[in-house]
C-alpha cells in the first residue's frame, strides 16, 4: 500500500484513504469532472466521467474495444477536446489554455506513451529519448546522460546510436516508454504500454513505471488489457458509456 508520501510502504493493496472508486475526495494531481465525448455521427462514447488521481498513484483503465479509452487519454493530455466537462492537471484547467500553453504543459509536465510509438526514424534512439529534454532546453550533458540512463533502464544499454529501422516492435515500445519518462513528468499517460513486450520485459518496464510514479510523486493513468499491468495499479477502473466504475480485472 502507498504511504502519504506517495511511496510504497510494502503492505500491498490499493490506495483508498476514504475515497470512492473514482478517487473523489482525493486532492488529485489529475482532476476530471463531468467529462462527455461523442464521435462524428453522434454516437456517445461516454458521459458523466469523474476521476481524481493523486500524486504517487497508478490507475489502470480497462474496457471493451471502441469504448473510448484511447480517446480519454488524448483528452487528458489536451490532444483532444471533450464535448462537456473539465480536466485539470496540477490545478490548471486545460479548457482555459490556448494551444501554446497546452503545448508547453505537455512538454514540461506530461509524459505520453502512444500505442503507435511515434519514434522518429531519422533520429537515433538516444535522440528520440532525449527529445522531451531538448524541447525544454536542458543542458546538453544532462540530456545525453539522462537519455542513456533511460535506455539502460528499459534494457537497451549500448543501443544509443541505433535507429528505429533496426528495432522490433517490443524494442520500439521500450524506447517510447523511456522517452515518456525521461523528463520526470508529473502526469504519465500510457496507452497499452506493455502490449508488444514479453512477460519478463513487461515486468521490468512496469517496475520502472511504478518506481517513477511512487518515488517521484507523479500520477499515472494506464489503458490496458493486461492483467499484469492492472495488478500493479492502485485502482482498476472500467470505462463504460456511463463513465468509470470499479473493476476487479486484476
Strand content: 15-25%
Uncertain segments of ≥5 residues (pLDDT<50)? 1-19
Strands in their spatial order, largest beta sheet: 6-7-8-3-9-10
Q: What general outline do the C-alpha atoms trace?
A: globular
- What's the level 1 CATH class of the domain at 56-73 and 99-246? Alpha Beta
Mean pLDDT: 88
Instruction: Kindly report how far apart the N and C termini lie.
Output: 16 Å
Question: Any idea of the CATH topology of the domain at 56-73 and 99-246?
Answer: Rossmann fold
Order of helices and strands: EEEHEEHEHHHEHEHEE
The tally of beta strands, per DSSP, is 10
Q: Determine the fraction of residues in helical runs and give it as a percent range.
A: 25-40%
Structural class, judged by helices and strands? Answer: alpha/beta
Distinct helical segment count:
7
Description:
The chain has about 250 residues and is α/β, with parallel strands linked by helices. It has a domain at about 55-75 and about 100-245: Rossmann fold, CATH 3.40.50. Helix content is about 30%, strand content about 25%. It has seven helices and ten strands. It has helices at about 70-75, 100-110, 125-135, 140-155, 170-180, 200-215, 225-230; strands spanning about 30-40, 45-55, 55-60, 85-90, 90-95, 110-115, 185-190, 220-225, 235-240, 245. The strands form two sheets. It has a six-stranded mixed beta sheet. Strands 2-1-4-5 form a four-stranded antiparallel beta sheet, with helices on one face. Helix 3 packs parallel to helix 5. The protein starts with about 30 loop residues before the first strand and ends with a strand. About 45% of the residues are buried. Residues about 1-20 have low confidence and may be disordered.
